[in-house]
Amino acid sequence: MATTNPLPRFPAGFLWGVSTSAHQIEGAADEREPSVWDVFSAEPGRVRDGSTAAVACDHVHRHAEDVALLAGLGVDAYRFSVSWPRVRAKGGLDFYDRLVDDLCAAGVRPVPTLFHWDLPAGLDWLERDTAERFAEYVSEVAGRLGDRVRKWITLNEPAEHTLLGHALGVHAPGRNLLFDALPVAHHQLLAHGLAVRALRAAGAGDIGIANSHAPTWPASGEEADVVAAGFYDVLLNRLFADPLLLGRYPEGIGDLMPGDVASDLEVVAEPLDWYGINYYAPARVGAPQGTETDVGGVRMPAELPFSVREIEGHPVTDFGWPVVPEALTELLTDFRARYGDRLPPVVVTENGCAYEGLDDRDRIAYLDGHIRALHRAVDAGVDVRGYFVWSLLDNFEWAEGYTRRFGLVHVDFATLERTPKASYSWFREVLRDQRR
């Protein structure tokens, strides 16, 4: 599918890729240890369609087919995640050895994420020791794959894992701790810093993290709405970016964290080679309304000091998320203004949308708009080095099960047959145009 209005050209060396995660696509659950997501999914009512990721896309057994899809797409890099529960099983790293070998043979750069929410069952991010165990696991992975992997990601979206899994209980492990979940954030950030040190000790470089961020818009100019939006911005954006980039928590947050916070922050703020941003949609936030709200399928309790509101006047995806490409430009330029020289080069490590159908023109329009918005941020002086589409394959979409499709490639979950969508062909042409 040729592009009728070619996208602007990005700088030479710009990295184009697609992303997936282990629990969402790998399957072969009987060949690894259980994760918190296995436990969560087995509880009735936790997953919308009652499904599990026991088989998912069966990527473990069909990875050669998926590598061929990557090669056919023409991406520079493939961001996947390493399953900590699989590594803990006998021979667990053997699969990733084969995958990395096949990617390298196909000319696709492997970019592993070392934690994408599938914590081994029995471990707990409320416990500081989990950060130490994570660093040990990272050392093991780096020792095995580091001769071929040149780009690493420590954690994926610790904000969502904290908020959805531990504060609101809609993701694994299903806790409803509200603000008592803050130690989970701190221990994940500590795990990141320890992982950076472990990777560097193993001789690895080019290390980043994949944090989700979004512009936060006040519901109105009223003081109560502005204050509420500012608080939400702290929780979603600054709680996870400030410690990494500035070496400190936002005012008042550090006092709520466990342990010797000052010493821990020295570890958390280990210098990064690049900073990964996952972006999907902005947030519109106002003062609490005294009632529970449901935004994008997430129930927000009435007792929170803010309420997330709908964003009107924009099309929405099948997930109900507003499509606002210009907010990506805003996010990146605001990050550059907020952190200045402390912000390393940026990579957009996830951007995508849920739509049904093989002729997915809405997905093409979404990606086209966001890539153009990304280029506007580059023109504005933001040092952006790469862009990864979420996702290569339709997959197990966490608490939504198989009811939401983000892939460039359709997966029939009964037969596991892969069928490239129109967006796959469109993105392939985009990549060819960028290299002409």
UniProtKB/TrEMBL annotation:
InterPro entries: GH (IPR017853), GH_1_N_CS (IPR033132), Glyco_hydro_1 (IPR001360), Glyco_hydro_1_beta-glucosidase (IPR017736)
Assigned keywords, A-Z: Carbohydrate metabolism, Cellulose degradation, Glycosidase, Hydrolase, Polysaccharide degradation
PROSITE patterns: GLYCOSYL_HYDROL_F1_2 (PS00653)
Catalytic reaction list: Hydrolysis of terminal, non-reducing beta-D-glucosyl residues with release of beta-D-glucose
A GO MF term: beta-glucosidase activity
Pfam families: Glyco_hydro_1 (PF00232)
EC number(s) on file: 3.2.1.21
Family as reported in the entry's similarity comment: Belongs to the glycosyl hydrolase 1 family.
Family matches, as NCBIfam families: BGL
Protein's name in the database: Beta-glucosidase
